[in-house]
Amino acid sequence: MTVPRNIVLLYAARGVRGFGDGFATITLPAYLIAIGYDPVRIGLVVAASLLGTAVLTLAVGAIASRYDLRTLMQLGAVLMILTGLAFPNFRNIAVIMFIGFVGSINPSSGDLGVLVPLEQAMLAGNVSNEERTRAFARYSLTGALLAALGTLAAASPDFLHRMGFGALAALTFMFYAYAALGLVCALLYWLLPHVHMAETSRPAPLGPSRGIVYKLSALFSLDAFAGGFIVQSLLALWLFERFHLSLSAASVFFFWSSLLSALSFPVAAWLSRRFGLVNTMVFTHVPSNLFLILAAFSSSLEVTLGLLLLRSALSQMDVPTRTSYIMAVVTPAERAAAASVTAVPRSLASALSPTLAGALFASPFSALPLLICGSLKLVYDVALLFSFRHLKAPEEARPQ
């Protein structure tokens, strides 16, 4: 089957962004430690970044139905360029938090960001209902595979340092590399066609599906609040502080973690065709949270990393299925707004917990954020199952 050119370009852009996020999420805490930040201040920077992501995503969702999607995506790429250029040139906590707030670095390395709802809306408009989940699985797979390679690139500062570069200069180089990737994204988006949602359907920020979207948003917010305790930047920080893991060792660990997550996406699409989207989201999420809780009580680096890798193999299966489910239960005209309205509360909720996590990492039981995250996510899984197990996507209502 030939994949349409527009979809290939969207996959490529997602891959480029994933590669940048892969090394930025690990480089960010290492850079902040290098300029003298403690876990509490690092938590504040992460919280500001997630809060800014929420605000910008909400703004984009409000106007996406009235403006050209390609133009909005190009502006998002410009923001990525400016973020990479600005971050390494300031050290004041207020300025760093402001750059994090208005910038594009995603500390969670997940499917959050101002560009996500725009890409999702364009992707959904280019595939049929039957192909939608597989398309989103490939979209997520592309991002995760390149993010895995990006985490390996996070070891570059150690390599540059051995070649004679100063430690801080080597970390600074990574932010400029991130800006260069933003330029690549801008070029890829430029090759896409102009798309106005009003040309294909009546623009509707949110209409008949409002109740469903708000309920999903509330549940996703609980999940995101829990996840905010161990976004990838904070998990890297915990491994640095708890086990004195080096940047190179962390990059290898997060490579395998990201790779396992990536390989789980096509498995999630396969499972969803047999067991349904909601069932796939819930019954892969539950064991991943149990692995996280067990990791909180482990005192062995090897056991901890093993449990976290098992978690990674399962924890992201809800990403393509969740996105596909949102696109399935709303009307086509509402898709950009629904993607934004479900993403924004998740960003807001996830922005609340990193500050708490930064403080808890300094407590006698530094793994408390892992325990809180796993427990709250189990509550989310049960609530999602009981709230939406009867609401099926269109393709689930007829034989495959």
Radius of gyration based on Cα positions: 20 Å
Instruction: State which percent range the strand residues make up.
Output: under 5%
Distance between the termini: 18 Å
Largest sheet: none
Q: What overall geometry do the principal axes of the alpha carbons give?
A: globular
Please identify, by name, the CATH architecture. Answer: Up-down Bundle
The CATH class assignment is Mainly Alpha
Low-confidence stretches: 199-203
Secondary structure: helix percent: over 70%
SSE sequence, one letter per element: HHHHHHHHHHHHHHHHH
- Write out the CATH superfamily name: MFS general substrate transporter like domains
E-strand count: 0
The domain count comes to: 1
In CATH terms, what is the fold-level topology?
Growth Hormone, Chain: A
Question: Could you outline the blueprint of secondary structure elements for this entry?
Answer:
Elements: H1 5-34, H2 39-63, H3 69-86, H4 93-102, H5 116-124, H6 129-153, H7 156-162, H8 167-190, H9 197-200, H10 210-227, H11 232-243, H12 247-275, H13 277-296, H14 301-315, H15 318-328, H16 335-361, H17 368-388
Helix pairs in contact: 1-6, 1-8, 1-11, 1-12, 2-4, 2-16, 3-8, 5-16, 6-12, 6-15, 7-8, 10-16, 10-17, 12-13, 12-14, 12-15, 13-14, 13-15, 13-17
